[in-house]
Amino acid sequence: MRKSHPVRRVVLATAATVSGVVLLLSLKPASDPAAASAAGAAPQATAAGQESPQGGSRGAAPAGSGTVTGDAVRTQYGPVQVRLTVVGGRITKAEAVQAPKGGLSDQKTQLAVPKLNQEAVAAGTADIDAVSGATYTSEGYKKSLQSALDKVKPASSGTPGAAGSARARTVTGKAVRTPYGPVQVRITVAGGKITEAEAVQAPKGGLSDQKTQLAVPKLNQEAVAAGTADIDAVSGATYTSTGYRQSLQSALDQAGG
C-alpha cells in the first residue's frame, strides 16, 4: 500500500479549511453596522410618522371655539387679566383670573368684575361700559378682553365665505299694520345674536314722522341690546312700538332665535 505524502496531506487540509471558511461567509447574514442602523431606523421613523399627527391634533379646539386668556394688563392698583370661553365665535363665559386686591381694591373688584363679566358676554366685544368707581379695573379689563378676543381663531370653512354667511344672516320680519301705517323690521343675526336692527317700514306723514324719528332709533338699540322682542315701548309711540315688536319677533322666528 502506498503511503500518503505528508506535504500532500497538508495541502488537502488547507484547501478543505479555505472551502469551509468561504461557505460560512456566504451563509452569514450582513453585519455591516451602517446597514443594521438603517434597517432599525426605518420602523422607528414609521412609528414617529404615525404618532405625530395624533400628537399635533391633541387638545386642538374647533375654529372659533375654545378657552383663551388675554394679556395681563397692569393698572395703578394691580394687574387685570381676562379669560374667555368661546363657542362658535361667541363669548359664552368671561372671568377675571387676575384683578386688583388688598384693602379697598377688594371691594371694588367684587363690585366691578361680575358686572364686567356680564357685559363681556352680552356685548360679545370689548366695547363695554366702565363700572363707576372702578375706572382703572374697567380699563384694564377691556384691554385684556380685547387681547383675548384677538387670540380667538375665526371659524373657517372649506368654501371661501361660507363660514361668514353661516354665522351672519339678515332676515326681514313680516309687515305689521298699525292705525298709522305698517311697521317692518329687518335684523342681522350673527352667532345667534342680533348685531343690527332697522325699521324698513314705519308710520310716516304729519305727526307720525316725528314719532317715528323719536321711536325707531330707540327701538333699534333696544332690539340689539336685548337680543329678543321683549323690549319696552317708547312713550308716545305705542302703536309703532307694538308693531315693531311683532315684526321683530317674526324676524327672530325666521332666524331661529
Write the layout of secondary structure elements.
Blueprint lengths: L5 H22 L5 H25 L8 E4 L3 E3 L2 E10 L2 E9 L5 H20 L11 H17 L10 H6 E5 L11 E7 L2 E9 L5 H20 L11 H18 L2
Antiparallel strand pairs: 1-3, 2-3, 3-4, 5-6, 6-7
Helix pairs in contact: 3-4, 6-7
Kindly list the characteristics that best describe this protein.
single chain, 257 residues, alpha+beta, three-stranded antiparallel sheet, 7 helices, 7 strands, 50% helix, 18% strand
Commentary on this structure:
The protein is an alpha+beta fold. It is built from 7 helices and 7 strands; from the N terminus they run H-H-E-E-E-E-H-H-H-E-E-E-H-H. The strands form 2 sheets. Strands 1, 2, 3 and 4 form a 4-stranded antiparallel beta sheet that branches. It has a 3-stranded antiparallel beta sheet with strand order 5-6-7. The longest helix is centred in the first third of the chain and has 25 residues, at 33-57. The termini are far apart.
